[in-house]
């Protein structure tokens, strides 16, 4: 038996890889399936598994290709992956290397939706500054939708319940099919010419294909150019169309659109009743305050009246007169008491004064007697004066030959100065 050639795992994997690389069919292939095991890696690469009922194949989209992806994939998306199928020789597995990925079926519509949305946004048709305010108290409301179906019934029912006085004007419109775009466009133009307060444009729920008329550019331009404020109410809350972005206000459902467009008369009545009660309460309070102020002013005026002023002055004058009389009587009584006291104290005071004066007189007499020149003369003293009568107290006051007079206790002497010593 001949010996077989033995190859390494790497050799086998490289051989298979070359086989795949040389197969033109596998080098440029488009495969459709459902996305699973999706992972957006931090490196920017996208890893996934593409599967259907019969099998599955691993896939990868490198960062350089992933930046051109126009939507974010999620598990369960049905897609068409275009690229090449190659062997990863280290793992011994083959996988599809994606160059482009697009949604299959409805995915094409989704891509068209995203492209138109981006284009209209760049044109400013979604800008808030172009949104017209929805009037709070609309009286005439236009409805653009199919004449039959749940949407129009819900709008009419809720509108009548909220306010039976609001006028509803229905413009029967095709909202699905090939002629829907033209029908919606014409209905908007026709209703806009009526000078209504607000328009409701919409329909009930459905698939993306059913709602597609509201994703067309013609409808978007009709809504954007409408002079009447437009509320978009297409499908259910989870449905979003281009019309929702262009409209002045988006309602999640047709029923919600009716609530947004038609003001609640019951709420108005309740507000009026509340305002009436508050007004009455305020008026009662104001009347009470006015009565209090009138009473205060009346009292103030009575106090300022001439008669009251005269009475006040009379009362003050009487009070002053009473106080003056009391003061005078008190002073007279005090004076009388002081006089009585002085009269009773006068003899004693006089006697005391006399004794005091007598004592002082004796003291002065003693001092006078002690200082008397006569008494000095009696003790042998004398005093001398010159011819002018000036007292001589020093030899410097006289000259030899001056005539002096010497006064003694008894008599006087005339003398002449013979010498000085």
Topology summary:
Blueprint: H1 9-22, H2 24-27, E1 29-40, E2 46-52, E3 55-61, H3 63-66, E4 78-88, E5 93-103, H4 106-122, E6 140-145, H5 150-162, E7 167-172, H6 180-192, E8 198-203, H7 217-224, E9 230-234, H8 242-246, E10 249-250, H9 254-261, H10 265-304, H11 306-370, H12 373-378, E11 383-385, E12 391-392, E13 403-407, E14 412-416
Parallel strand pairs: 3-5, 6-7, 6-8, 8-9, 9-10
Antiparallel strand pairs: 1-2, 1-4, 2-3, 4-5, 11-12, 11-13, 13-14
Q: What are the main properties of this structure?
A:
5-stranded mixed barrel; Rossmann fold; 421 residues; alpha/beta; OB fold (Dihydrolipoamide Acetyltransferase, E2P)
Instruction: Summarize the main sheet.
Output: 5 strands, mixed, barrel
Mean pLDDT level: 87
Structural class: alpha/beta
Please report the number of helical segments: 12
For the CA atoms, what is the radius of gyration?
A: 67 Å
Q: What count of domains describes the coordinates?
A: 5
CATH architecture designation of the largest domain:
3-Layer(aba) Sandwich
**Could you tell me how far the N terminus lies from the C terminus, measured between alpha carbons in angstroms?**
195 Å
Report on this structure.
The chain has helices at 9-22, 24-27, 63-66, 106-122, 150-162, 180-192, 217-224, 242-246, 254-261, 265-304, 306-370, 373-378; strands at residues 29-40, 46-52, 55-61, 78-88, 93-103, 140-145, 167-172, 198-203, 230-234, 249-250, 383-385, 391-392, 403-407, 412-416. The protein has twelve helices and 14 strands. By secondary structure, the chain is of the alpha/beta class. The chain folds into five domains: 9-104, Nucleic acid-binding proteins (OB fold (Dihydrolipoamide Acetyltransferase, E2P)), CATH 2.40.50.140; 124-263, Rossmann fold; 269-300; 305-369; 376-416, no CATH class. Helix 5 packs parallel to helix 9 and helix 6 runs parallel beside helix 7 (217-224). The strands form three sheets. A five-stranded mixed barrel has the order 1-2-3-5-4. A five-stranded parallel sheet has the order 7-6-8-9-10, sandwiched between helices. Strands 12-11-13-14 form a four-stranded antiparallel sheet, with no helix packed on it.
């Amino acid at each position: 038996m001949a010996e077989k050639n033995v190859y390494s795992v790497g050799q086998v994997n490289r051989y298979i890889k070359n086989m795949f690389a040389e197969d033109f069919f596998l080098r440029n292939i488009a495969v459709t399936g459902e996305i699973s095991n999706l992972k957006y890696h931090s490196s920017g690469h996208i890893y996934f598994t593409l599967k259907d009922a019969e099998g599955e194949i691993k896939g990868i989209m490198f960062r350089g290709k992933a930046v051109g992806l126009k939507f974010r994939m999620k598990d369960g998306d049905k897609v068409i992956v275009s690229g090449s199928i190659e062997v990863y020789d280290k793992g011994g597995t083959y996988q599809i290397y994606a160059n482009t990925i697009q949604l299959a079926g409805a995915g094409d519509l989704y891509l068209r939706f995203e492209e138109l949305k981006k284009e209209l946004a760049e044109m400013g048709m979604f800008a808030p500054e172009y949104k017209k305010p929805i009037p709070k108290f609309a009286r005439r409301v236009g409805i653009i939708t199919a004449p039959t179906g749940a949407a129009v019934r819900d709008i009419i029912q809720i509108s009548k319940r909220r306010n039976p006085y609001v006028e509803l004007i229905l413009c029967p419109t095709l909202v699905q099919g090939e002629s829907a775009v033209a029908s919606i466009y014409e209905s908007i133009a026709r209703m806009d010419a009526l000078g209504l307060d607000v328009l409701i444009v919409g329909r009930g729920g459905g698939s993306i294909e059913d709602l597609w008329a509201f994703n067309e550019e013609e409808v978007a331009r009709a809504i954007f150019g409408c002079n009447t404020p437009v509320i978009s109410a297409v499908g259910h809350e989870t449905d979003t169309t281009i019309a929702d972005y262009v409209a002045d206000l988006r309602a999640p459902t047709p029923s919600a659109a009716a609530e947004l467009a038609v003001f609640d008369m019951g709420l108005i009545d309740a507000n009026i009743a509340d305002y009436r009660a508050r007004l009455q309460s305020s008026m009662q309070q104001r009347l009470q305050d006015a009565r209090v102020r009138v009473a205060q002013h009346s009292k103030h005026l009575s106090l300022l009246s001439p008669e009251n002023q005269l009475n006040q002055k009379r009362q003050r004058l009487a009070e002053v007169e009473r106080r003056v009389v009391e003061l005078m009587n008190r002073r007279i009584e005090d004076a009388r008491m002081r006089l009585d006291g002085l009269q009773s104290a006068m003899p004693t005071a006089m006697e005391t004064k006399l004794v005091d004066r007598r004592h002082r007189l004796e003291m002065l007499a003693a001092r006078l007697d002690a200082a008397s020149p006569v008494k000095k003369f009696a003790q042998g003293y004398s005093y001398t004066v010159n011819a002018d009568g000036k007292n001589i107290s020093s030899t410097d006051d006289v000259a030899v030959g001056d005539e002096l007079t010497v006064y003694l206790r008894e008599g006087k002497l005339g003398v002449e100065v013979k010498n000085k010593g």
